[in-house]
Amino acid sequence: MANAPFTSPGLDGLLLVDKPSGPTSHDVVAQIRRRFRIPKVGHGGTLDPMATGLLVILLGKGTKISDRVMGHDKTYEGVLRLGIETDSQDADGQVVAERDAAGISAEQVVAQMKARLGDQMQMPPMVSAIKIKGVPLYKLARKGETVERPPKLIHVYRFDLLDFAPPDVRFSVACTKGTYVRTLAHDVGQSLGVGAHLVQLRRTKIGQLDVARAATLDELLECPSLEGRIIPLAAALPLLA
After folding, report:
1. What's the whole-number average pLDDT of the chain?
2. Hey, what CATH topology would domain 74-205 get?
């Protein structure tokens, strides 16, 4: 059958995608699988639908190293908005509180960023895919439920102010896997007494893999093949050591 899935040794490895805002990481995987008829496709770490940037797509035998990809440190750039809290801690959620943030200075923001460097225990947001007794938290959140969830140990290597244009704060952050950047934004707002939520997020690096090497999803879907786009496993593994 002409449209039957096929397997090729050349389709084993990593594909770097610059994810657009809107689709889920699973949506991107599904589009790559359908377009190129590749039976085994996965990803090396979820990005929220709102987020953009580096999404590592795993092809063929590359799916076997998903843990290695997901275990690496991440780097992001983003924008948090002071004065507004949402139930999801980002712009996709419902507003739950508003306060006047006009009195907040850049120096105060920087102080809160510095206070979050190093090891810390982070409470995962209710709107997340973490499971409690087998049920994803976001499903409970949709029902208006709030449950206890265990905090996670994370490490923030760097949390820098890039631009201060009140009420918006543009920043960059380098952190360990499992860090919720929207929770960092939320916590900064809480400490400043005015609340905050994440309005933009872009992942720029996973370990040594850089979004500068990635192609946009539209570019990839328009290609007749993925030849020349895939990082073979032999070349990928040193980058993930």
Report:
1. 90
2. Pseudouridine synthase (3.30.2350)
Q: Would residue 160 show up in a list of annotated catalytic residues for this protein?
A: no
Residues 17/217, Cβ–Cβ less than 8 Å: yes
Domain boundaries, given as residue ranges, for the chain: 9-70+209-239, 74-205
Among candidate residues 154, 190, 169, the one with its CA nearest the CA of residue 74: 154
Beta strand 168-175 pairing with 74-82: antiparallel
Q: How many residues are recorded in the chain?
A: 241
Set 12, 18, 48, 87: catalytic member: 48
Give the helix ranges, DSSP H, for 66-197: 66-70, 106-114, 137-142, 181-192
Longest dimension (CA), the chain: 67
Structure tokens at 68: 């290695």
Q: H helices then E strands: how many in the chain? A: 7, 15
Ranking 34-48, 118-132, 225-239 by mean pLDDT, the lowest is 118-132
pLDDT, position 149: 81
